[in-house]
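Q: What residues go here?
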């Protein structure tokens, strides 16, 4: 009897092994080269170390040399296919979202930003929410808010730069961008709640690309707790704006009020409260990190490149000459800052704040002769085309003239704001903020670096010591 059950158990085990092997063979047919590594962890720790040491490009280049421009690995708990190059960018930005892939980020990012933020949505939902956001973020609407950005910038300089001998640039640029977001997008008055949000945001961002292990001592757990608190604050803010609208407040005063005021012809809301919360937090986190990073690296650039600094200063002083003393910048003034914006774009090419992003395959996808299985993540990066010498000759050289004729740059090669129908809706908002900030910084101060100006990615780009500079006032305006 015992021998019968032993034989039966042996046969059952062999059948299971045979079925498992068959499934593995079927599922691995046509997969890209590479290794998935250990379950859940895979190559995540090695990638984290490379990001922190600012060698992520080298780490990925070694993969490309070994496996080619497409390979499989495990990142942040998911089997992933890494793709790179211009064709990969085009594939990412022009694919039929909702049909073959979604813009779904890693679990840690999705839990922090929310699953109803614009980058997660597809098809009709994406268009509906994007159209709602663009009612406030389009240039015609943002024109009326240049003066508000100007006021925030002057107040920032008065509070944090004037009468100082040394400053750490990155923390101050984060403070600036956060305050502009609060003022322009949220209508969030200065006070304890705004200060609390400012303290919570770094904790949220720290968990952005963390391994999603929700234990009390993990970065992911701290980030989730910070996110829960910020969501509660934003919800309370939304309810305050509802009351103000009922009392006759202007629907154009900030992004939240604009979104709450939108109705269709049947008097139905075009964007839900949950979607407003998730998208406000998305813009809060994205703007806080990306714009502050670009401003920081522009200040770093001006300290290291006196020729570019002098040309930007000349352009900005020319604008000041034609304005009455103390008058705020206008939309027409921003239109004259052509060289300054070319310098900004070249800085974005060399130092894109966001290293890369993820998509999710909604079905088996055939790409470059390989199969990306349904449910797998797709990881793409910006640096590969930004540093391609066939697209940008002498790619390591700083050369703003590359952007004098943007039509000459091949499509899907310069992608700091993404591309296609899903290009970042806040691009114009970021441009205005950058130009206003640079105008006042270069016309009112000079600076020199104090020591180390190296940088790392954790996961977003930032100088190792916050970029400490010694500052000197240029003039009194």
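A:
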């Amino acid at each position: 009897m015992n021998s019968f059950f032993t034989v039966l158990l042996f046969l059952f085990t062999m059948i299971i092994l045979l079925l498992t092997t068959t499934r593995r063979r079927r599922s691995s047919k046509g997969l890209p080269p590479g290794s998935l590594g250990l379950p859940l962890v895979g190559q995540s720790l090695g990638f984290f170390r490379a990001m922190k040491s600012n060698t992520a490009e080298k780490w990925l280049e070694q993969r490309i040399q070994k496996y080619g421009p497409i390979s499989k690995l495990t990142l942040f708990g998911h089997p992933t296919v890494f793709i790179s190059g211009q064709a990969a960018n085009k594939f990412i930005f022009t694919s039929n979202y909702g049909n073959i892939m979604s813009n779904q980020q890693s679990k840690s990012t999705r839990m922090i930003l929310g699953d109803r933020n614009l980058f997660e949505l597809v098809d009709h939902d994406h268009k509906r929410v994007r159209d709602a956001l663009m009612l406030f973020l389009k240039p015609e609407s943002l024109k009326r808010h240049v003066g508000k950005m100007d006021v925030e910038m002057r107040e920032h300089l008065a509070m944090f730069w004037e009468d100082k001998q040394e400053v750490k640039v990155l923390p101050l640029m984060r403070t600036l961008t956060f305050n502009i977001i609060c003022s322009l997008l949220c209508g969030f008055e200065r006070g304890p709640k705004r200060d609390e949000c400012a303290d919570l945001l770094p904790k949220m961002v720290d968990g952005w690309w963390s391994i999603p292990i929700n234990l009390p001592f993990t970065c992911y757990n701290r980030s989730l707790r910070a996110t829960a608190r910020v969501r509660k604050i934003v919800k309370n803010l939304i309810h305050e704006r509802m009351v103000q609208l009922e009392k006759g407040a202007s629907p154009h005063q900030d992004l939240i009020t604009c979104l709450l005021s939108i109705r269709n012809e049947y008097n139905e809301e075009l964007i839900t409260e949950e979607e407003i919360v998730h998208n406000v937090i998305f813009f809060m986190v994205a703007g806080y990190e990306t714009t502050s990073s670009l401003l920081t690296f522009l200040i770093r650039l001006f300290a290291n490149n006196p020729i570019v600094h002098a040309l930007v200063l000349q352009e900005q002083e020319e604008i000041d000459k034609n304005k009455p003393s103390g008058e705020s910048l206008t939309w027409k003034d921003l239109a004259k800052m052509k060289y300054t914006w070319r310098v900004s774009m070249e800085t974005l090419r060399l130092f894109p704040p966001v290293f890369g992003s993820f998509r999710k395959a909604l079905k088996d996808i055939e790409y470059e002769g390989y199969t990306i299985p349904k449910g797998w993540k797709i990881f793409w990066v910006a640096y590969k085309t930004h540093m391609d010498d066939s697209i940008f000759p002498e790619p390591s050289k700083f050369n703003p003239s590359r952007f004098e004729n943007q039509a000459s740059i091949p499509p899907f090669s310069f992608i700091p704001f993404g591309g296609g129908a899903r290009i970042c809706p806040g691009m114009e908002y970021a441009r205005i903020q950058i130009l206003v900030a640079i105008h006042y910084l270069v016309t009112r101060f000079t600076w020199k670096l104090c020591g180390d100006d190296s940088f790392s990615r954790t996961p977003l780009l930032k100088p190792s010591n916050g970029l400490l500079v010694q500052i000197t006032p240029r003039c009194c305006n």
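A: Context that may help when evaluating the design: Residues 36-473 form a domain with the Cytochrome p450 fold (CATH 1.10.630.10). The radius of gyration is 25 Å.
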